[in-house]
Amino acid sequence: MSEKPHSFLLLGLLIVVFLFATWPYQFQHAWQSGYTYALTPVNIEAAPAMAAVASNESKPSTSLPINHELGTISSQPALSERIVNYHIQVSLNEEQRMLEGEEIFTWRNPGKKQVTDLYLHLYANAFQSSETTFMKESGGKLRSDQATANSEGYINLTSLETLEGENLLPRLKYVSPDDANEQDRTVATFRLIEPLAPGEEVTLRLKFEVKLPEVFARMGYFGDFIMAGQWFPKVAAYETAGTRNRAEEGWNVHQYHGNSEFYSNFGVYSVKIHVPEHYVVAATGMQTKVANLGQGRKVVHFYAEDVHDFAFALSPDFITHETSFSTESIPGVKIKLYVDPEHESLAERYLHAAKSALAYYGKHYGSYPYNTLSIVVPPRGASGAGGMEYPTLVTALAADEKSPGYELERTVVHEIGHQYWYGIVANNEFEEAWLDEAFTSYAEEKVMENAYGVTTNHRIEAVYLTDPAPLKLNAWEYKDHQHYAENVYMRGKLLLLDIEQIIGSDQMNRVMRSYFQAYRFKHPTTAQFQALLEQVTKQSWQDYFDRHVYSSETNDLAVTKIEARQKEEMNKQFYEYTILLQQNSAVNRNVPIELVYADGSIVRKAWQIGEEANVHFVERSEVPLLYIQLDPDQSNMLDTKLNNNFIRAELPEKERKSVAITTTSLLDALLRLLSW
Amino acid sequence: MSQKLRQGWSITRRHFKIIVLNFMYQAIWGIVLFRAIDHIVTPLLQRYPAVSMNADALQLFWAEIQFQLLKTDMIVPYLYALIALLALRMLITPILQSGIYYSIHGMSSGEPHTRFRKGIAACWKPMTIIYWIKSVAIIAPFLWLIRPLFSIQANPSAVYAILQKPGWVWLLFLLWVVTISLISYLIQLGIGAQLSLLESLQKGMKHVVKVVVIGAVIVMMYGLISLSVHALSMIWISLISFILYQLLPLLRSIFNFWLVSSQYATIGHDLNSSPQ
């Protein structure tokens, strides 16, 4: 801050004059019209956990270190701790597909101890060679997108100095805290000139260049399209004691892994993006101004508060749409769509999906605290950039399909769901990815059903889970991407749906809402979610979490055996069935059993699952029993072996023989092709 | 030709004991296989929701099985068991072949008695070598053709990769199998007549057309009977069809002996006339 008020005033005046002078230029790119700056009222529910968490929190800082030019922006009261604030100027070198940037960041020591070293994420170095941890773990493939010959990229720090000009670059060293891979340069650290006392701030100036890879994993270029995510030197997350139940404060820093997303502290971003004049720029936060620089270039300025990342997308071809949206719980959001021309005709679908998502999440979890939400539709072929979330900016699936099905809506709804869990609640995606992905998948499903009537086949999903793993596991410790995805997204979602089955939808809504409200901007852990669940439901979930979250147990219910006998009593013939059931449930629950008889009659019984692993019961009937179906409505979502929920009372000998004989003769014929 | 078939038939009849032995061998395999399969299939069948009121039940049943097959190692022990079974049979096969070919050849050139055991002692070595060369020549390219299946867990579309191979690749493979089988069969006939490998091949090639024609006739006859029995046992499940089905290995044995006998009857004189 300037010490002299009059010079500050003068500067402010100059800016106002400048703004008016450049007004006509801005007008053609007028994206900044009519922002609602009024702060969304925080809907604080009297969740019991809230108080406990709030007391843990240190006082947020709202200061932006070099803030002179931001005079036109009314800074809102801080929603988050704002530990780190960035000012970045970045220029696109479209010929060489490089970003050249200058960054000034101010980092505040939020803890109670001195900090001697800083850690930086240099995520773009994941694409430096085939030997980086990301490339080795992913095999150069993310989802179904394969790295191309042009998918090498890097970030090069060309300068790192204090504001006084003291060079810190010689102190920089690369570290690999997770796997000691010397070829991995995605994390760097350096010693500060002076140890930083608690509450003190340090401001550093960096210069860097980023060579963008041809996109296959989130960031990169495709033709003229550029997706810049994880593109700038970023300070790692520092956790105070108590954050994420941590006993002692310190850095939480991980490399860029094949299966991992990200985790950072909240802060304020002010980013100026220099691009050719005809480029359209989408970015995190709100666009505050556009200025022509001459020689066919312009600078677009974006500003975002209380976010933990900053991303932008560029393309000369984007067609833009904008709509404002408000509901009772969403006071006013500009939804901006940057759509590839091939999907221009689908613009309404994108916007509708975004509104449906915001409306649902706003109503059920809490208000969306930002003024903007941008949706980027990457061009055909750039699918590696698609389906990704950044604060206040999401990418939809690439415009590969002429007329996509509901996957268009599903992706938009899903990525906007991330705004709530990844973006606002902001758990550690390296260590507990399920808190984001499973919650988002759960929320997405609710919107898809609510707004579009699209339901999901949970049985197919359950049986697809052939290799369950713990949900709370470092992302890179899953066997491969498939293993990561099916557990973190699907098993996690099924677990939330299972909890919903046990406690009912109303309770579940309360749990989700309280969790969001209590932990927004707080980086919660699995244990904190569990504690909240226990507070809301007033029951212990320890055994359940121990088995299904912290380890990989499924909840397999089975009819293991059925024995039929024909009996006669008082001249009356009847059948007697002895039925053996097996379970390994972690909670007491009710599971229906359906008995279907030969005459078509159906009898439903409730199986009150308790402690016993094996249960048998005897059933008598005059009509022969056809079959037993356990849990016909799949109220137990954690059962991944559903075929053993069904058993026929009797297997006709004829059928058994004919199947066995046919199979035998086929196999025998096969063997006889090669042997006698 | 019918005369050669009749000649072959008479030799076959005189080999009745060995045919019965062979039948027992086949029947034992049949029983072992049936037991094993029954053990696997019956519990599955009991879970098969054919009678379920739920319309999606069947689809779900198959989906779970498909995921278990494609995404887990569930199938591996079964595959190993099958390979072990095949390996065992492949050890026994050339030994049986040496006894039978030798004995039939002997009888077709005037021996009054069967000489099964002597045949095994006399020619199990070359017989085994030829049989294994043939087997490897067939199995190796087959494995090469289906190699995408080995990585099916990582890449479930491997099945399509195989199906998308052009038809001529499979046709060529089929042609290769037929050629290799025919050549090795001709050589084995020669070995049964105690010829050297080269002589067997030379003489065999000379009569290849006759061997093929006689083979085709007998195989067709067997095929007709076997097909009707199979169809019968599937469509009309009764005691009779079951007994017929159980007798199929016997029938197969008889036809097999008849095939070899007829072929020796056709070309045996030439195999004999070679200088010893």
TrEMBL record, chain A:
Top-level taxon of origin: Bacteria
Catalytic machinery residues: 415, 489
Domain Peptidase M1 membrane alanine aminopeptidase: 351-544
Cofactor: Zn(2+)
Pfam families in the cross-refs: Peptidase_M1 (PF01433)
Sequence positions that bind Zn(2+): 414, 418, 437
Cofactor binding notes: Binds 1 zinc ion per subunit.
Keywords: Metal-binding, Zinc
GO molecular function terms listed in the Swiss-Prot or TrEMBL record: metallopeptidase activity; zinc ion binding
Signal peptide span: none
SUPFAM superfamilies: Metalloproteases ('zincins'), catalytic domain
Name this protein carries in UniProt: Peptidase M1 membrane alanine aminopeptidase domain-containing protein
Gene source species: Paenibacillus montaniterrae
From TrEMBL, chain B:
Keyword Membrane listed: yes
Superkingdom of this protein's organism: Bacteria
Annotated keywords: Membrane, Transmembrane, Transmembrane helix
Transmembrane domains' residue ranges: 20-37, 78-102, 123-147, 167-187, 208-225, 231-251
Name by which UniProt lists this protein: Uncharacterized protein
Species this chain originates from: Paenibacillus montaniterrae
